[in-house]
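Hi F.,

I've been meaning to write this up properly since the lab meeting, where we talked about keeping a consistent format for the predictions we share between groups. The idea is simple: the sequence comes first, exactly as it goes in, then the structure tokens exactly as they come out, then a line or two of notes. No screenshots and no reformatting. I'm using this chain as the first example so we have something concrete to point to.
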Amino acid sequence: MNIINPYRFVSAGFTDPTDIAGCELWLDAEQGVYSDAGTTLAVNNDAVYQWNDQSGNSNHVTQVTSGSRPTLKTTGINSKNSIEFAEPEFMDSSTPVVSAPNTIFAVHVMTASDVWGSAIWDSDANVRHNFFWNASGSPDSFRAAAVNNEDTTVGSGNRFDQFITAVTYNGASSSIFMNGADVGDGSVDLGSNNLDGITLGTLRAGLGGGNYYLNGQIAEVIVYDSALSTTDRETVETYLADKWGITI
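Output, unedited:
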């Protein structure tokens, strides 16, 4: 059983991520996962063509190339649905376009990393707005990057843990939380890059020379168009911890 900090709670009236204003994207592997362009729901081990946005904004992510499609696993993160990626698999969308400040959440686990690292998300256009395992760093760590980079204090010994990650891209007030803990390594100004569409499972198109593919699973992704308050961030983290059985 997962154990949640008893001082955390889901705010009254919160039922899903759209209850907080400004939800631009909500991908949930428990719903809206298709083996084609939105007609046939995927079943276990199906290649995923389309993952539907539940925010109401229709920012669905897709993969039209058959050899690059990830796989639905119905016994994924803690026996719930997850999308499993392995090189060269990824999904993307040209929307949403969300200016900074913004906040991005993901539930993910990495099972292996190549010599360069493994990306969880990035922009889809040629503007970096990403979060990835930086295997070529010193020391190795997760990294949020926009105009500038900020590494985390999560090191190699924990890189294969299950994580609920929340990154706020907000200039010098940016922050990185993993499983509820502030893990940023300092007050780095991440800059003001937009999230210009979204890529899951690798860095944005044309970057990395085929490196940084995720070998692992993503279960949920949520994007907000603001720097969430502490109360709202903790509400979303607690909701995700309850849902996916991850201790925060």
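Notes:
The longest strand covers residues 102-112.
Helices lie at 230-244.

If this format works for you, I'll send the rest the same way.

G.
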